[in-house]
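Narrative summary of target 7.
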Amino acid sequence: MCAIALIKFGYNNILNDSDHRFVLQYFVPIWAIGLGYAGYGLSKSYYKHKNAVFAGDYNNEEKRNNWIVQRRLLISNSLKIAAKITLGIFPIFLIAYIDNSSFLGSSVSLLIILLSTGLLCFALSKYLKSKSN
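Modeled conformation, tokenized:
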């Protein structure tokens, strides 16, 4: 829902006069669908693991502590996947920026956003993994 609202807000207010029309019209909706599918899969996996750990007994302190560790590991793995995706896409947009590609528009701000998002996800993943051990 947030991705759809962001795309609608962007189309209506900010991004109509942009030079990156191809990216906005075709590439962003594909990412929104992919992110929605990934979010659904992650939430399904999250609740499957939670139900497996607790097995109906939510008042047990040992199970609760075990779930905290497993939850941090699940979130760490999710952030690592997000970091790999964003850092994997970064070279494509970097090449598009260097070549001044009209097919796939890129800008310095987009490159900074991709790089900082990837590095931040990777750093948070490492932090959560070290915190769970």
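The mean pLDDT is 77.
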